[in-house]
# Entry
Amino acid sequence: MDDIAVRFWGVRGSIACPEPTTARYGGNTACVEVRCGDRLLIFDGGTGVRPLGKALIAGGAVTDAEIFFSHCHIDHIVGFPFFAPCHVPTTQLRLWAGNLLPEYRIEDILRRMMADPLFPIGFADLKATIAFHDFRAGETLRPHPGVTLRTAPLNHPGRATGYRLEYANRSLAYITDTEHRPGLPDRNVLWLARGADLMIYDCNFTDEEFPRYVGWGHSTWQEGVRIAEAAGVKKLAMFHHDPDHDDAFLDRIGAEAATLRADTIVASEGTTLRI
# Structure
């Protein structure tokens, strides 16, 4: 199929919040499933990767996938040991991270997370075949014929990577965990988003909240709208919701965003899009 299919499995930032007041939009942390034809690409391994893994196992097919990490803060990697295909010998996984070199590597980070005294089993207990690809943000990745990912560094403590996926003349920008500078659009973000059919953007805060959290490495939904307008984005998906923003709060900012820009949605768990 010559389109990109997207499903959101985790849309929260910082920490999972499985509460009645967040149930409608969902409480799992970042995980987005993307299909380019028959190729499976996963962006981030937050707690949302667990239900994705269960769905893949229930589907019966062998899992062969790329996982692209925006960065390795715990809310974006903590679901990985609970990704059910990791425990199946026929699974083939390729893990990508662009924020760690030269100090670290993605294999080291995941092994450290799954080590005593933090975790009951070790990385060596996983049964899948796993390959590791560390790169530097700014490189262009071509994991499969016809599938291209352009990358750029984002403004986040410990560094993070933004991705622009291009497939079959369609494009998706995955830009999360980035802090903007008011009045000065980030050139890397604009470059990744330019003309994208879909931009998934870090909308953790509001402009009113933002001054209290400078240095935390996150942006606002209003900045997402400004970037989308400046870059000519077709559809904006507001993402990485603050755990203290309950369903009613997200309803309100979604309605406000829709008055400012058409084709803007508040991503929720289970949201599916084709571009």
About this structure: The first helix runs from residue 49 to 59.
